[in-house]
Amino acid sequence: MRGLRKTYGSRAAVDDVDLDVRSGEVFALLGPNGAGKTTMVEILEGYRQRDAGEVSVLGQDPANAGRGWRARVGIVLQGTGEFEELTVREVVTHFAGLYPDADDPATVIALVGLSDKANARTRTLSGGQKRRLDVALGIVGRPELLFLDEPTTGFDPAARHEFWELIRRLAANGTTILLTTHYLEEAEALADRVGVIVAGRIVAVDTTEALGGRQDAPATVTWQRPDGAVETADTHTPTALVAELAVRYGGEAPGLTVSRPTLEDVYLSMIGAGR
Amino acid sequence: MTPLTLAWSRGRMELLQFSRSRESVVFTLLFPVIMISIFGSIFNGVIAPGVRFTQYFVTGMIATGLMTVGFQNLAIQIPIERDKGVLKRLRGTPMPPWAYFAGKVVFVIVVGVVETVLLLAIATAFFGLDMPGSATDWWTFAWVSVLGITACTLCGIAFTSLVRTARGAPAVVTPVALVLQFISGVFFVFTQLPTWMQQVAALFPLKWMCQGMRSVFLPDSFAANEPGGSWELGKVALVLGLWCVIGLVLCVRTFRWSNRD
User: Could you list the residue range(s) of the whole structural domain that residue B144 is in?
Assistant: First the structure.
């Protein structure tokens, strides 16, 4: 997308955004609530019209892409229990019927781990199970590109890790995945690359390891002096400093730590600066 | 999928949902029956030679039943589905938009037929309704039902653009339906209503659906008691047809798939 913009009244929800997501990668849009993640993704999904800019998703403009395009795109929506009285199998089978080249419903239900709930009415599912059903409906049409909008909000840690496993399996099959999240661990666990969005603008795009120049940022080395005081040094050559300390202390330097900014440090300084 | 199997697949989902939620089954199918039982027990009088009020009331309830299935049901159901994101989810699939409405139509037809058959059975068994004797009457019954339920369905879908949220839907839709029933001569003999009320009712489909149903089930002598002194079947067809057109135009122009914008 190039120069993407969407305004509501005088407020720009998405403000002049350029972004490329490569085929086959898992890309995470990371940003605080209200940063414009959902607006941007809904434009890419074809749900909202943009005010300016150019967008190409799988080679087509989502604003007027047809049913052939829809068949190649999967969208995982926040389920609201809308199929209350239908069973998991009935819902997945019905949606499979809407796609030209759908996966076998039973296979999809097994993939998302709902096989033993296949005949349960959907209203009896737990929150995490409902989310798995949402994923099943998103992937049943064998999409080349899958959108996941804040997929694990409200999950407990165990459910989140199981869900991540599921996403990794999909990614391993070659599905391109664009997910939005405000959880750093989620971006770090899943994404090949991360885009940080603040107040409608993309402020950084990089791998999680390199985000915000994290790899090249000065490292902080701390150790204890013989008198007990803690000494701290920021340096671009931490290895040399540690070697020097080894000589100085004739072996182990007491209380030695070497650290670089965490993803959280980088992210917080970014959303602080972007505001 | 071919268009027909797609429409059936959507309709089947609608019917499954419906048949598994007891409240809507009871309300939609049994409510008219309960109403007939109550009114049939209270008002036993004869309103014209050979016509008891119960028979008159049953014809009105058949028309009302069609309106409930088409208009009330959809005007309340669709905003709920819009709020819950059903429409959004379907729009995210390659399903053509018409299939959603086709599914609703399948649903309305099946429930409408079941409800009408049930009503006829009970009315003939307990409330002295005579089945139409001639093929002409059956033909009138068929086209009045089809035109009437089509007009109501289209108006029900169109009406959803007036309803902002699902929670407000019953509050907006139910009074409309109830007022129409009162002024269209479902509960009272139409010609006993004030003239201005009759004129207002004549603008809407229900009055004409009731009149068409009376022509089928009541003796021809009763036609003299109608406002025009006859069954006016031509006018019934005209007004119902007109409402189909109005409803369709409104559907196409105003239907919203989401609550935004």
Answer: 3-254
| Identity of the residue in B9, B20, B85 whose CB atom sits nearest the CB atom of A77 | B85
pLDDT at B15 over 90: yes
pLDDT tens digits for range B46-66: 888 888 888 888 899 999 999
Per CB-CB distance under 8 Å, the chain B contacts of A90 are: 13, 16
Inside any domain, residue B96: yes
- Kindly state whether residues A128 and A165 are assigned to the same domain: yes
**Interchain pair B1, A97: CB under 8 A:** yes
What are the two backbone dihedrals, phi and then psi, of residue A194, each rounded to the nearest 5 degrees? -125, 140
Q: Which chain A residues have a beta carbon less than 8 Å from that of B13?
A: 86, 90, 94
How far is the C-alpha of A109 from the C-alpha of A133, rounded, in Å? 8
Q: Which residues of B touch A (CB under 8 A)?
A: 1, 6, 9, 13, 16-17, 20-21, 81, 84-86, 88-96, 258, 260
Look-up: residue for tokens 């021809």?
A: B220
Nearest to B96 among A67, A79, A84 (CB): A67
- Transcribe B217-245 into DSSP letters: HS-GGGGGGSTTSS--HHHHHHHHHHHHH
In the numeric block, the tokens 């750093």 are attached to A184
Q: Identify the H or E element spanning A77.
A: none
CA B30 to CA B23: how far, in whole Å?
10
The half-sphere exposure of B218 on its side-chain side, counting CA atoms within 13 A, is 29
As a whole number of angstroms, the distance between CA B35 and CA B32 comes to 5
B115 in Cβ contact with B61 (< 8 Å):
no
Q: Which two tokens stand for residue A152?
A: 């694990």
Based on the fold, state whether residues A143 and A226 are members of the same structural domain. no
What's the predicted TM-score (pTM) here?
0.83
What ipTM describes this predicted complex? 0.84
- Best to test chain B binding among A85, A101, A122, A131 (most B CBs inside 10 Å): A85
- Provide the domain count of chain B: 1
Same-domain check for residues A50 and A167: yes
CA distance A205 to A219: 22
Q: Cβ–Cβ of B91/A47 closer than 8 Å? A: yes
> Which residues in chain B have Cβ-Cβ distances shorter than 8 Å to A121?
20
Backbone angles phi, psi at B168, to 5 degrees: -85, -10
Quote the number of domains for chain A.
2
Q: Are residues A189 and A55 in the same domain?
A: yes
Any alpha helices (H) in chain B, and if so which ranges?
A: 3-20, 22-25, 31-42, 53-67, 73-84, 86-91, 97-126, 135-159, 169-183, 195-201, 205-217, 233-254
**pLDDT digits 0-9 by tens, A64-103:** 888 999 999 999 987 667 788 899 999 999 999 999 999 9
> DSSP labels for B132-179?
P-SHHHHHHHHHHHHHHHHHHHHHHHHHTTT---TTTHHHHHHHHHHH
- Tell me the HSE value of A173 on the side-chain side, using a 13 A CA sphere: 14
Last residue of a domain, one of A189, A207, A225: A207
